[in-house]
Amino acid sequence: MQWVSEKVRYRWAVVVLTLLSACTLASQGAYAFSYTNGIEESSWRFDGSVFECSLTHNVPFYGEAVFKTRAGEAAKFTLVPLAERLKTGQASLILQPPAWRHNLRPIDLGYVPVKRGEEPVVLGDDLAERLLAELNTGYEMELTRMPWYGAEQSSRVHVSPIGFRDAYRRYLGCLGDLLPANFDQIRRTAIYFGSALFEPLPPDQRRKLDNIVRYCEADPSVTEFYIDGHTDSVGTRADNYALSENRAKEVTKYLVSKGLPEERIKVRWHGERYPTVHNTTVAGRAKNRRVTIRLERDPALIPNVMEM
């Protein structure tokens, strides 16, 4: 009888342990649904040009994790889902150490904003650079947030470091070849002048023009340039009209000397007719003493690596 009772207790113990295990698994499943890569499936894709450098990681059944640096801008990280998954709010961001590095602990980076849309998670320069550095040392990104459609399970997106280093090395090399500015930064450029009637272009304003020239050498889609001269209201209208002409022509001469095709440049001058702000203050007059350069593109010629 004693042997029978021990056998019964053993069976009950097995049943209890099985139930506890099932409950544990159920609670874990209710906590998070993971989007992750297997060891053999993880990969990173590098794409680069003088316009931008990017690293793209495919997350199965979720979408892509992308690091991107455009010319003239800081790095950023974005999640690009196949469909909307995450609820607007805050997501936890944790870096998990490699399994074989038992001496390392997870790094809790706190919470990051989530917004429903095509790019629900967008992280700026400082955090993007931190993530790049930690992925390079073997940490895995783990971002957790409730789904927008009201399920009880959280969604957990994993960004694996497997295959990262080689792509990251190429990405770093690409950064050194980026142009100093992108099209959005130079498509409308203002060159400012001092109050003197005759003065050379200041060095900081020449750098703006040099950036335009360098960009246009790389992008064949820029086909037209509109240059407009303006002044403040100090002096007579006739003098200001002539002064705006001289400054517009000075900027044009500089751009042509650097290689821009003169036949594609349209030059106009307006004197004091179109102030951007009131001329009643010193700061306002300084804003109005300007030559503006507007770039126009042929959409059919825009390189594939760029966006309009």
From TrEMBL:
Asked if the Swiss-Prot or TrEMBL record annotates the protein with the keyword Membrane, the reply is yes
Q: Which domain of life is it from?
A: Bacteria
Question: Is Transferase found in the keyword set?
Answer: no
Subcellular location(s): the record lists: Cell outer membrane
Which segment of the chain is annotated as a signal peptide?
A: 1-32
Q: Which PROSITE patterns match?
A: OMPA_1, OMPA_2, PROKAR_LIPOPROTEIN
The protein's UniProt keywords, in alphabetical order, are: Cell projection, Cilium, Flagellum, Membrane, Signal
Any single GO CC term annotated in Swiss-Prot or TrEMBL for this entry:
cell outer membrane
Residues forming the OmpA-like domain are 180-299
Q: Where does the UniProt entry say this protein principally localizes?
A: membrane
Q: Which InterPro entries match?
A: Bact_OuterMem_StrucFunc, MotY_N, OMP_bac, OmpA-like, OMPA-like_CS, OmpA-like_sf
Q: Which Pfam families match?
A: MotY_N, OmpA
**In its UniProt entry, what is this protein called?**
Sodium-type flagellar protein MotY
